[in-house]
Amino acid sequence: MEAEQSSPPPPPSAGDDCLVFKVNGERFEVPEIDPSTTLLEFLRSKTRFKSVKLGCGEGGCGACVVLLSKYDTVNKEVENFTVSSCLTLLCSINGCSVTTSEGLGNSKDGFHPIHQRFAGFHASQCGFCTPGMCMSLFSALANAEKTNQPQASPGFSKLTVSEAEKAIAGNLCRCTGYRPIADACKSFAADVDMEDLGINSFWNKGDKKEIRLSRLPSYNPKDHTCPYTEELEDEYKSTRLLNSEKVSWYSPVTIKGLQNLLHPDMVENGARIKLVVGNTGNGYYKETDIYGKYIDLRYIPELSMFRKHNSGIELGAALTISKVILYLKEKSKANEYSSGDLLFTKIADHMEKVASGFIRNSASLGGHKHETITMEEFLSRPPLEPKDVLLSVHVPFHEPTRIDGSVHTNSKLFFDTYRAAPRPLGNALPYLNAAFLADISCDRNGSLVNNIRLAFGAYGTKHATRARKIEEYLTGKILSLRVLDEAIKLVKGAVVSEEGTSYAAYRSSLAVGVLFEFLNSFSSVASAISAGSSEELSGSVLEGTAKSINDKISQTGRPPLLSSAKQVIQSSRDYYPVGEPMPKFGAAIQASGEAMYVDDIPSPPNCLHGAFICSTRPVARVKSISFKSNQPTDVISVKDIPREGENIGCMAMFGSEPLFADDLTRFAGDLIGFVVAESQKNANLAAKTALVEYDTEGLDPPILTVEEAVERSSFFDVPPYLYPQEVGDFSKGMAEADHKILSAKIKLGSQYYFYMETQTALAIPDEDNCMVVYSSIQCPEFAHRVIARCLGVPDHNVRVLTRRVGGGFWWKGTKSNAVATACALAAHKLRRPVRIYLDRKTDMIIAGGRHPMKITYSVGFKSDGKITALHLDILINAGVTADISPIMRVT
Amino acid sequence: MEAEQSSPPPPPSAGDDCLVFKVNGERFEVPEIDPSTTLLEFLRSKTRFKSVKLGCGEGGCGACVVLLSKYDTVNKEVENFTVSSCLTLLCSINGCSVTTSEGLGNSKDGFHPIHQRFAGFHASQCGFCTPGMCMSLFSALANAEKTNQPQASPGFSKLTVSEAEKAIAGNLCRCTGYRPIADACKSFAADVDMEDLGINSFWNKGDKKEIRLSRLPSYNPKDHTCPYTEELEDEYKSTRLLNSEKVSWYSPVTIKGLQNLLHPDMVENGARIKLVVGNTGNGYYKETDIYGKYIDLRYIPELSMFRKHNSGIELGAALTISKVILYLKEKSKANEYSSGDLLFTKIADHMEKVASGFIRNSASLGGHKHETITMEEFLSRPPLEPKDVLLSVHVPFHEPTRIDGSVHTNSKLFFDTYRAAPRPLGNALPYLNAAFLADISCDRNGSLVNNIRLAFGAYGTKHATRARKIEEYLTGKILSLRVLDEAIKLVKGAVVSEEGTSYAAYRSSLAVGVLFEFLNSFSSVASAISAGSSEELSGSVLEGTAKSINDKISQTGRPPLLSSAKQVIQSSRDYYPVGEPMPKFGAAIQASGEAMYVDDIPSPPNCLHGAFICSTRPVARVKSISFKSNQPTDVISVKDIPREGENIGCMAMFGSEPLFADDLTRFAGDLIGFVVAESQKNANLAAKTALVEYDTEGLDPPILTVEEAVERSSFFDVPPYLYPQEVGDFSKGMAEADHKILSAKIKLGSQYYFYMETQTALAIPDEDNCMVVYSSIQCPEFAHRVIARCLGVPDHNVRVLTRRVGGGFWWKGTKSNAVATACALAAHKLRRPVRIYLDRKTDMIIAGGRHPMKITYSVGFKSDGKITALHLDILINAGVTADISPIMRVT
């Protein structure tokens, strides 16, 4: 081993300096590329495979999921797994085969049954998330066939209904409510109950099972294996390693080789070094740093090994989380270790809740510093320096505590982990992580804590911590209500978020809850035993009890994901075919990813890309905008609106809105500039790092609440047709009421309209002062007029095309106008095509935020709940002005 | 001088290895480029200035004319001149400013009065030639202001009507008939007669001159000078020379430097060298050779000098023809030389008939080997080796022949040149050139030939020749009818075209004609004198006579180009505004070049370019198609038509036509393959150099004439609705006729439908098996159906857009179908956009050739010409099949 470590990296073989991979069977050779390029960027800009969508850019939505096939030289087989292409660096797929949804099937070569069933089950609405969903399901189906499960009946996969449902965990959808998607996925499962599948275009209500099955687009696991992998086996049987000076990407195969690359002498001009495994950390850190050298750690055997020691197991730091989970589960199943199997299962279970499958498939164990399995000592040290390399993680075996050298009678180890996050599965940052390890003896006196370790993390501190005070308090105690009560008080003092952490009180109460749940189980066991069983408390009984406790926790702590429901829809033939479950036109090409959204339209030659600079100050003068190093091609602002034109960015309910801030910014988030650059990446970077000088001298402070707006009489004009109408006699209604709420208030905060596809537009100047604008807008007729007025050209000079909207929810009816108009204005000035695809953060600033509202109401109602009088006053806050609009007055 | 020659070329100054120039004020820096790239290719593919159209690619049509502005370091002023951008190599415009029609004005910044007047005079029909026309006129207007002519009245140029008309000589138009174009040009002229200008949208019939003038879009020479030249003066006051290894382009400044570059040691791997001045020769030779080194000869003083010796004048070989003309004219005006001024004027006049102004502006004297002024000895030598450099041309002074040391009494030199070509001015290859120099003495006895030189060229031999036998015969003879007759017989024997020369007999008879015209003048003079004048035949009288002869030739040989006509159009108000001279919508943007034709649509990313391989054999099997070195991306043929599709390329009057030859080629020119490559240049080259193996074993010979078709009963089916109808009683009509033609025949050959824009299409695959095709087609509905049937997709999957047609003449109604369908088929197969812009030669093969016809007719008519009976049988020959269709039978 040592000899291997000290040997120099082998000389690169022919072609090692050229990145080679396949996409849907097409071979790509890339001799030069910016190593920070992601697989998503490459696919979307250099290939015709646009099914790979940019949703969040942080591995959080699954819209960009692709299948990666890689030849595993150790197991001598092709591995197929999903990854987020938005995080995967292109160089890290050297020697791989990438499959996108178009690669599974398409309108020309025929659709894959996944596509057909997504269409038939109405599982694709806006369609933006669908190709990623399809890839997640495909990967699950392909890998299910490799398991030892018995062969399913013809037309079905080995996959279970539960696995089918979990297959798409982490793939977000904003339209369907998931039910039809889950149905499409479950329809492949070996154990599916056809009755349980919802409305679809394949069969009629009441059709027999055989008929239903025959109507499903046929699936045969053998016919629908992973494509494009045969050549991979031929070509890549010996691992192909990228070592390229041009690309600044290196793949050392020994620790020594790695050390050489990290040696200061080898680093030119102090260039920053990036150590890469899956690059999933970028989804969280979103770094914009520029690195001079990328080192891929995946080919150093020490970093990718599993090893069993007497004291525990050692896991290479570059192992993916998925592989660690697999390994831990296999080990615990195999019962290889005298103890600790419970612990390994629990750790594996916990890890399955971290991020999504397509993230765990490439995220490394070591790279994920917030994992609870890492050692306390390690965690409490400052973060690793960029050049430090974490080699492996050691997980010790645990044996019951020995007192005076011998194990306590009936002593048993209990271990459990907890994770509370907005979603039980799939990508979501946790509010709290916790892991508890306890050595407990139970007898008729109760449960005695021989030893206990309590770790809490992710609740708003720099790193996870041990709650030592509570551990000390509990050790040697018999668990009683009083003891539990005291422990809980201590938790409240121990789990305290840092200032500025959201939901701090909630996190703290979560800590209380999980500790109570863990400890209370033992109390219950003890009570049960003391309640009358005369059985000997043999070790085996306790073991069984422990298992049941853990199972119970599984059942209660994690409600089964599997959803089951019956959907009964009464369809009348009166308005046939209205109400019939007809497949949506274009649903199949949405699933295959061939459906063309605005950002899928290839950039015309000479196209520029835009990004917005938003004001960070409400009610301020913008004195100047400057750029440090990322000088954009141009900055468009209110000054660039043609003399014949108008500063207009939207025609809304309460009148038109300006495109750009003029003398004063109206609110934080107001548009003050539109930078254009040669790529979206550069435009985003320029906008993000722009230096804006503000001046607020002599200006009134902004109005930030509804109350301030009322106080300063800053109101919208409400158009007459929106004036409230009184219905009935309010006083009479109130007089007749059994119960009255004379006055009460509801305050609604602002809200971000989350759609999978961010705001986007592409403006192409045409001959004779004409402008063609592709916009992801729900109301192209609005953009048409706004653009014509802004540019000061006749309406017929503007053509606005909405091909598809990747989710709208009305904010693509209003906010899209400004986005489209800014592109048109830039294209008009520069006489070049200009496009934009907003990053999620800017989208949240610009398009996010429905006005916060305050509702004051009075209600009178009868004892049976019938309303006799209702009066609502709705106040909408819009930053500097507010609208007092008693929209409704009902009796 | 010698010192200068031997000094090494100066070390390149900073930036000398980077090509720098401006286009419409935009600066371009091009560090690397294929040196064979033309200015046209660059403008059309790398800039947004698409006004520069590719018409013929040989400097023959003027559609690509641009204005070049160059700082002349000798005269210290900016020179402005037009060039054909299709021939001009990009590297040769280093340090120049290019102005295209968009640069003169446009829809955004306002149109130039040239654009406005072209629109108002209806001078732009299809619009494809218009931007080039505008540039030619603009150059003439700009340069007119530099002359010493008196200032014109306000609103007018110094340009004369005659010059205005000549300004566009060489710019071809196929739509307008030139009248409106000439009107637009003349409207600027100082001496224009407003009454002479035709119908236009500016004024009404009967408006007074002042009103007319006020209605013309205003022109002020001072406001409309050459744009984009000020910076040129600042930046390029010292000549900027391109010397770049990357580009393989060198600009030596001394003979020695040139020799160094030509030295075998300096030429890597025997790379071929190209000596460049204007590259106009490529228009004729159309070379496809690849050169390893380009040497620009324009900066060597010796090659660009004018020098007067005692024996004559010497002209640097790299001087442009335009400069030589200017020099010769100036010299003859200045009367600097004791004799020979006549000769210089004549040579200058002759040179003005060679090619077009925009060619003469860059074509070099030396480079044009077919010039008649070059020496006989030089001409009879084999062509120059690529590395030989012609330094200069010496034009000797000529004095009357001395006999025994003294000049013959009344002896006078006469010189004239002749050029017969399809067009008197503008680019057209001559049928014959001739130059005659005679020393004649005239007295009452007649005209005595003391000495004579007769040169003929361009009639179908390798080089121009002296007709020595005729010279010998004529010398010492008094010109008489008998002598003339004998001389003419000798010409017939001397001017004999080589085998295969077109119009051989015509060329020979032209030679007879011009010699007769030259010699007969002297006979006439002599006759006139002998007829009675008692005047002394003083030298001055003879001189006057000589002048009048030459003038006479001018008048008779060259009809004045200036056209003058009155156009009276009766417009009725009954159908107002029908018949009103309203400006055509889009005419101004056609003039400014902003109008978008199919080939002006920027190539979508990943676009491929196609080129047709046409069969060279009628009725043959294609065994194989292979490529030597220019391997294209793919070759589409009949095999690529989808199973659901159909081999269809056109739906014509007599049924549909296949797209590709299937088992057998139908005729020479039948489509057998469609190569696609990454650029149009590569596709054309691959198609041109493809090796096609044919097999004709066991096949019937092709039918090549109408007679053969009839003999072999090979007929088209004529659809019933086209059956001829008999009108009246033919026998009765014949019986009543005073005169009868019982049977006669007319044979019409095939014909090429010349449109300025060749056939072109762009096919872009869209989602869901859809195809968007931009085609320069007159009937998009035909292409729509043909493409859908060929691809085997529903009609609604195909969208065909005709934005503009750059001239059609019906062949863009039929032949465009196959062009659009081939692109669509390739795009369908390869799932990439595919476009084509046919080179003129392939266009002539594919789209050219209306079927040759044979008409047999019988007519009976009265003495007053009234037809009493008419019977026509029209036979159309279509290669392998013929159509016997007695279309019309009229009485």
Automatic annotation (TrEMBL), chains A, B:
GO terms for biological process: abscisic acid biosynthetic process; auxin biosynthetic process; ferredoxin metabolic process. InterPro entries: 2Fe-2S-bd, 2Fe-2S-bd_dom_sf, 2Fe-2S_ferredoxin-like_sf, 2Fe-2S_ferredoxin-type, 2Fe2S_fd_BS, Ald_Oxase/Xan_DH_a/b, Ald_Oxase/Xan_DH_a/b_sf, Ald_Oxase/xanthine_DH-like. Its EC number is 1.2.3.7. Its cofactor is Mo-molybdopterin; FAD; [2Fe-2S] cluster. Belongs to the xanthine dehydrogenase family. GO terms for cellular component: chloroplast. This is indole-3-acetaldehyde oxidase. The lineage of its organism: Eukaryota, Viridiplantae, Streptophyta, Embryophyta, Tracheophyta.
